[in-house]
Amino acid sequence: MSVNIFKVFVIVYVVIGSCAYCSTSSDRKSDESDNEEYQSLREGFDQGNDDFTANFLSDVIDENPNTSAITSPFSVLFLLSQLALHAKGESYKQLANLLNLRSRYDIRVMVPRYLDDINSQRSVNFSLAERVYCSMDYPFSNAFKRDTRNTYHAQAENLDFSEPEEAARMINAWIASKTNNLITDLVPSSSLNEDTRLVLTNAIYFKGDWRMPFNRRMTKKSDFHVTRKHKVSVRMMNQIGHFNYSYLKNIKAKVIQLFYKDGNFSFVLVLPNKGHSVRSLSEDLQYIDLQNDVINQLEPARVNLTMPVIDTETTTDLADILKKNGVTAIFDYDNSDLSGILKHPEPLYVSSAMQKAKIIVNESGSEAAAGNAIMVGTTAAEAEPKTVRADRPFIYYILFKNTPIFAGTYAGPQKS
């Protein structure tokens, strides 16, 4: 009998402004050594995430170079870490290498605290949630249920996959509840059958307000140059303000950082020089360190920023991307070893992996944010502002404490 795992990554992401709240810790003295260990592990994971994000986005752009896309490699890593805890042999080695974590102990220490931190941001609507579904006839191992509960703050449920329509309805209902109903039909009933053993879901939802909202009256229709020979009319937002900015010669691009309200989350736009394609830019970004070589090079500057309103939704097949990044064993029936997941081990492999993501970036995000605008007037002593006019394809990120949570490219509005 063939055995299938249908693995689902669900990413939904909405940006309309933003702000963040930094969590606090207690018992500083007793937790000092634990904090040092956690920070060290988190730095390692974040570095692995930076590398994976650069490779992931480059692969997506390479596949469709003139198409807008939004992705969340960060959330993929969290779901893969759950598999890694109960994988063995080559399956475990490949997953641990991608995660940039040395052991299962490292995962159990790092993941719950990272989730607590990122889910505790009070000034933005943000959540990262996971749920695992298993066939009724194949119960989870006690260790897997314990890790799902304690490490991922998630639930593991049994479903009757021989009733695919009902199983899909229940999975999609949970996804919809975690994404403010933006994603309602990710898992088609046709993807489930009596051979399905496991469905892993991951949902991210983000919505927040800009620290400096755009004035809607300044939004105008303008040309966006998809290629040298093809242009489309899009809504372009504009404001003059103080942002973190730099021109980086090593990647031939202007970079500007817009903060959300409390400063833990930010939007980073990377605009390549005219004649330097997004495809080439994505390749350049694979060979540098995002934080040290990009974010840390930004300095406060007065900037005249023009950028498009973004509304992008992307479904990405993850199998090829993961294989290119060294994760092959879990997709191979003969080599996959995920035997620690089930109470009564049997051959398991990942037959399908996909991610669905959505992003909306507009002027303010909410009516309440309009009253929080910081207006910067011009004085005779101020120099002419730097100009960033994003009227050609560019790359962008959403960062949480300088770690990329989402990565995308804008190449004009998607075809309906």
Form type: globular
Radius of gyration, Cα only, in angstroms? 22 Å
Beta-strand percentage?
A: 25-35%
The biggest beta sheet reads:
9 strands, mixed
Structural class: alpha+beta
Total count of helical runs of at least 4 residues: 9
Find the CATH topology of the largest domain: Antithrombin, Chain I, domain 2
* CATH level-4 homologous superfamily of the largest domain: Antithrombin, subunit I, domain 2
Distance between the termini: 41 Å
User: What is the H/E order?
Assistant: EHEHHHEHEHEEEEEHHEEHEEEE
Low-confidence stretches: 1-29, 365-380
What's the CATH architecture of the largest domain? Answer: 2-Layer Sandwich
Mean pLDDT: 83
Helix content: 25-40%
Structural domain tally: 2
Characterization of this structure:
- The protein is globular and about 70 Å long.
- Helix 1 crosses helix 4 and helix 2 packs antiparallel against helix 3.
- With 416 residues, the chain is an alpha+beta fold.
- The chain has 9 helices and 15 strands.
- Strands 2, 6, 7, 8, 9, 10, 13, 14 and 15 form a 9-stranded mixed β-sheet that branches.
- The chain has 2 domains: 242 residues, Antithrombin, subunit I, domain 2 (Antithrombin, Chain I, domain 2), CATH 3.30.497.10; 132 residues, Alpha-1-antitrypsin, domain 1, CATH 2.30.39.
- The N terminus is likely disordered.
- Helix content is 29%, strand content 30%.
- Strand 3, helix 5 and strand 4 form a beta-alpha-beta unit.
- Pfam families: Serpin.
- InterPro entries: Serpin_CS, Serpin_dom, Serpin_fam, Serpin_sf, Serpin_sf_1, Serpin_sf_2.
- Belongs to the serpin family.
- This is Serpin domain-containing protein.
- One of its GO terms (molecular function) is serine-type endopeptidase inhibitor activity.
